[in-house]
Structure formats: C-alpha cells, structure tokens
Amino acid sequence: MEQRNLDKKIAGEEAVNFIKDGMTIGLGSGSTVNWMLQKLGELVKEGLQIKGIPSSRKTERLAKELGIPLTDFSKVAKIDLAIDGADEVDDYFNLLKGGGGSLVREKIIDTAADELIIIVDGSKIVPQLGAFPLPVEVLPFGWEITATTISKLGCVPKLRKIDKEVFVSDNGNYILDCQFNAMKQPQNLHEKLKQVVGVVETGLFINIASKVIVAKHKEIEILSK
Ligand code: 5RP
C-alpha cells in the first residue's frame, strides 16, 4: 500500500480508541474516515454498542454495508464524538475541508459534537491554510454571479466538475473551488464568504476541532488543544 494511504489507515484506526460504548458518533467523510469505519464495523460485530450519524451518502452506504447502526437528528439532540478527515490543518487546528464535497453536512455534524477528532496523514499539516483550493458550496441558481462576487475576495472560483459533469452535492448544490493561496485570516475570509448571497457554506472549519490524529511514515502523533 502507498505510504500516504497507509498513514490514512493508521490514523483512521487509531481514532476508534476514543469511541466508548453507548456513544452517538458523527461519521465524517473521505478515504481516511473509510478506514476508521472499517475498524468501527469490526468493533460493532464484536459487540460495541454505538450509533452513527453519517455526513454523506457515501459514508451512509459504507456504514450500512459494515453493519454500523445509524441514527439521525430527529432521534438524538447531540453527538458525543465526531471523527472526520481534512484537506489541511493549521497550527491552531483550523481546518480546510470539502475535498470530497460533503462540507455542509460535515460542518453540521462536527459542530453538533461534544468533541471533534480530525484524522489525517502528515501531508495535511500546514503552517497556513490555502494551498488546497477552498471548497465553497453554493446554490445552483445564479452560481455564475455568486462566483463573480466571490472572485472579488481574491480568488478565481472554479466550478467543480467530475468527468466533465458538474458535481452536485448531497444537498443538490454546486461547489466552487476557490484558490486563495496563503490565508492570513481564515476566520475573516469565512465570514466574508458567508455574507455573499448564494453561498451555503464554506470549507473553513474554525475553532471546532479539539484533537488531531496525525500519522506520518507510520508514526502516530495525537495533538490536543
Ligand atoms: C470531504 C472532506 C474530507 O474529510 C477531506 O477531503 C479529506 O479526505 P481524505 O481523507 O480522502 O483525504 O472534507 O468533504
């Protein structure tokens, strides 16, 4: 297995050590989370009693295949622990997320949790967010004018396409990938983007994570706030 993927697996599997019997778990999205789900599925088969709330249709499908019991916000008022991936993590645990296009549901879940643990391979730890294009979920109606307004904040928004088809999120929206490069004040940028009519949510997760599990060349480091 390629080193980066192996590190994702190591970080994902480590995270299940924080899951306790009876917990409601927020299940993030992405390839690192998928490794966590595999391990969690094994623990459920051995008798661990938890319920998960998935942050994407992909996660929901995999969790069901693995026999992980699921619930939703009509049945629970809060989440004990959320475990999610990220595309970039800075020194203050600010996150850039949404590479997989699930940022809105992820943010709802991650902010509803008592604790958010982020699982990443070492390449995701950066001194400053912004090398990865920031995903911004927007309403399809008038996305062109929304993109023009966003561009005035200092980027060239690119409509996300997969195999030449416009990518549509689980919420029926579009994603604009916005290359800002070095973000000096991510919170400020997030607030400005949220003021743009047509923007549903940004991939900037500020001050939400409390732990980051990093695996680099098979070595695990658990960073806490
Ligand atoms: C999806 C996300 C993912 O958590 C993020 O893209 C990381 O993915 P991966 O673990 O596959 O590198 O934010 O919207």
Brief sketch in words of this structure:
This protein is α/β, with parallel strands linked by helices.
| Helix content range | 25-40%
- Per DSSP, the total helix count is 6
- Specify the CATH class of the largest domain: Alpha Beta
Radius of gyration: 17 Å
- Range of strand content: 25-35%
The molecules bound to the chains, other than polymers, are:
ribulose-5-phosphate
- Through-space gap between termini: 32 Å
Which consecutive residue ranges, at least 5 long each, have pLDDT under 50? none
Biggest sheet features? 6 strands, mixed
Rounded mean pLDDT score: 97
Overview of the molecule:
- This protein has 225 residues and is α/β, with parallel strands linked by helices.
- It has 2 domains: 3-126 and 206-218, Rossmann fold; 134-202, Alpha-Beta Plaits (2-Layer Sandwich).
- Helices cover 29% and strands 28% of the residues.
- The chain contains 6 helices and 15 strands.
- The protein has a 6-stranded mixed beta sheet. A 4-stranded antiparallel beta sheet has the order 8-11-7-12, with helices on one face. Strands 4-5-13 form a 3-stranded antiparallel beta sheet, with helices on one face.
- The longest helix has 15 residues, at 31-45.
- The protein is globular.
- It starts with a helix and ends with a strand.
- The model has no long low-confidence stretch (mean pLDDT 97).
- Residues 8, 28-32, 84-87, 97-103, 106 line the site of ribulose-5-phosphate.
